[in-house]
Amino acid sequence: MASQSQQQSTNIGSSTGSGSGAESTQNEGLPPLWREVPLPSESLSHLDSDSTFKKRKSEKSPITRCFGIETRDQLDQEIARMFYTGGLPFNLARNPHYMRAFTFAATHNIGGYKPPGYNKLRTTLLVQEKANVERLMIPLKSTWREKGVTIVTDGWSDPTRKPLINFMATSGNGPIFLKAVNCFGEVKDKYFIANLMKEVIQEVGHQNVVQIITDNAANCKGAGSSLRNICAARNVNSNHETYEECSWITEIHGDAIQIKNFIMNHNMRLAMFQRFSPLKLLSVADTRFASIIVMLKRFKLIKRGLQAMVISDEWTSYREEDMGKANFVKEKIVNDDWWDKLSYIVDFTRPIYDMIRHCDTDKPCLHLVYEMWDSMIEQVKLEIYKKECRPHSEFSPFFHVVYEILVARWAKSNTPLHCLAHSLNPRFYSDEWLLGAPSRVAPHRDGEVSRERMKCFRRLFALSDDVGKVMDEYALFSMKSGPFEDLTCIERMHSMDPKSWWANFGAQTPLLQSLAFKVLGQPTSSSCSERNWSTYSFIHSLRRNKLNPSRAQDLVFIHNNLRLLSRNSEEYWELYTKMWDIGGDAFDSLEDVGFLEFAELSLDEPDLENELLLED
């Protein structure tokens, strides 16, 4: 029996070590680490020979060889090594172009193919791909003549401290990256910026440009004025100006920062806080949209956890040098008056936050800004007067200060184009909207709106005959007469999308209809340009600081515009490549992701934040 068992184990060892001719041939093409190593017979003596033989036989079955399972596994391992050794993010596996590359290679028999090398990737293929992207963008650009386009510009410095000014063109289809100009060694005064704007306008086509959006820098505003164009300054400001009457807001914010720092700067206190609160106490960067309001909102959510923590027995177990800070934190957290002030800040700033949040997107909202500002001021007044328990007609010193700040901001950002867009929105002529509040009037009855609208008419229509025609068409539209007397036309003014309404009912007023198509499809913020710097820093990072500006610009052009094309496709919302350009490896899962962390996750894009929150 012993000799028989030894003979069986010897036979198994010999068959495993030598193998068939086909298996030997297959092993010759594998790296040394993946070739089968013969095992000595002694190492198998303690195993059951029949079960081992069946297991080895099943692994080499014809079905396995037919479907190439071993080859597939080896390819998976090689791809994985590329990720691991190159430090590539796992999120790359969701990229549709990654999927297409290997699918194309698997479905085409390309004998002797070698992947492109270092020089080919950075030169020939880069030039070819840029030309390919320009061809793909032609259908989107062809809509500019009818829909109009907004030119957005903003400045930035790359990792090598070279100043850049980027230009983007945005309309209803999304922002298209045009170019980034290297301004190193140049004086960036209004004349220099105006010349750059002229070049971009010529590239886009002056007949297609509806507005130019810049930041509020003096040189940018001066450049817009020198162009004698309709420029809309950015309608976004995340910080409120400080008045002496509003110093208590700064104090509350300072207290919140001290509480946050005291807890987060010590592991023991942070661990204690996490036991009492399921939400994280996050540090919001000053560059984050409305950082102060965002931080105070989070404090309201974790109020109970903070209070439970400071009244617990664990809170007293600190070193003596921390007792003063600990007492300060406890005093504020258990103080109801402090929490009332914090809630008051969040409540009266909520209309401001919501309005700016709505405008700070790439969506068409130019035709909504004028009405949104009026409604926002009324909502702020209601919150303040409700807190102060004042009659609506009584004077409030605090609201007066807030009102002056808001009006000053509106006067700084308001342009005739806002009034024109407001005038062309059919919703503001409907009875449903006019009866919604006693102070509302139709745009043609508002003196300021009418005055600014006439400025636009004279500027947009050079010929006096065209000005007269468009005025006659506007009179028919605003008075609901002539082609606008139809009952269906009047009924749909409030409910139908403005551009759809003009497409259905504006054919007999061609000048006004064409103007409405262009104006009603424009954004009102330079947020797309600012978000593009995140793309730029992603490509031209500290690790890739040797990229020259020209090559970096080409990479940004390809990256940004291919992403835009992807987002306009149905594939972007499918399972395997769903939202492939969002989040990356910053979040392996959404289990521990707090609401505020979605700022980094989605580059401050509300639509994608909502999609991810609903999915989670």
Describe the structure.
The protein is mainly α. Among the domains are: 69 residues, no CATH class; 82 residues, no CATH class; 128 residues, Nucleotidyltransferase, domain 5, CATH 3.30.420; 106 residues, no CATH class. 57% of the residues lie in helices and 6% in strands. It contains 31 helices and 5 strands. It has a 5-stranded mixed β-sheet with strand order 3-2-1-4-5, sandwiched between helices. Helix 12 links the parallel strand 4 and strand 5. The two termini are 64 Å apart.
In short:
With 616 residues, the chain is mainly alpha-helical. It contains 31 helices and 5 strands. Among the domains are: 2-70, no CATH class; 89-122 and 569-616, no CATH class; 134-236 and 541-565, Nucleotidyltransferase, domain 5 (2-Layer Sandwich); 415-520, no CATH class.
Q: What labels would you give this structure?
A:
Nucleotidyltransferase, domain 5; 616 residues; mainly alpha; disordered N terminus; 31 helices; globular; 5-stranded mixed beta sheet
